[in-house]
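WARN retry 2 of 3 for item q-0093 after timeout on previous attempt; input resubmitted unchanged.
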Amino acid sequence: MKIVKKFKSIYIHFLLLCALCCTILLSSCQKEPEPGSKEKTQEELKEILLTQQLEPKQRYTIINQMANALLSEQDYQGVILLLTNWVEENPDDMYNSYWLLMTAYAYLSLNAEPVAEYYFDRILQTCPDLLVKGSSIHFMCLQNLIQISKTPSHRIKYFNELINRFPDNVNTTELYLRLSIEYQKDNQWDQALKTCELFLQQPDATTIQIPGEPDAYKNARHLIDFNKSSKDWTFESLSALESAVKRAIRNYDWKSLDKYKAKVNFFSMSWKQDEMDANSQESFSMKDWMRGGNRIRYSDTLDETSNPNEAYLRTWGWNTYVSVWYLYFRKIDFPMDPDINGNWEWAGIYIGNKL
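OK item q-0093 returned
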């Protein structure tokens, strides 16, 4: 009887060793495995799980080998069935966060992103964090959730958790901006402004390159400055703004033109310059250009390139060096103030003929 028990123990340890080395052996072996050999190994490993008293690391080794064998066959449904059943039947397994992570990745491989999102989030909510090759499982879950989640309220939660829990692993400058954008999508305007301010306070805010947000600093700066301004230069419609500006030019009324100019980020530049260049933001009075006998004129209609959100009025006669100026009108996008949102402003001047 002792010999039988000793033999049985040796056999179990032999199978565990096979579980650790199977992947290497399979990848290096030149001969195809015999039909049914993989299934036989899976059944033997399953039998050990069900009948033997194993240490947690021994169980981990067996389950991991079984799951990886299924993954090598691209049997994602098999992986999902194996791991979800194990987690359900063994809720106290210290490695459940890893099994659910593999489950989530299996669903990603099946292009079932909403289900994968459920499992990534479930890990965060119900499982303690683990390190896999030095990387936090919770951090990996948050990275994936940011990529696949489509709901602003969910993305807000994930961005905040990344910033609060893993500030050394992420670019907080970028995340503050992205968080502000998600707050705006979710109509949480106070939070949007607070996180936008945090973005602007970061030392690299003016230089950071954020994928998908080429004008990150300019847009954030404009949002904050516009929110703090009086906004008393805006017009309810484009036609009202156009009529007022034309009337002021016709009457050489520089005081009215100065009043109509936007008080936040008004620019004057060539077509090649950037709106946020320092020399394009210089403040000046229209009085400097409406004296000395200049005969200033404007087109009867707006430029043909105008659209529902932007408009250009061609004018000329301002000086002898560059006679043509295009006055740039812009529709205001500011949902946090319904009385202002959708109004129009005179936002700047493009100097010279269009390129």
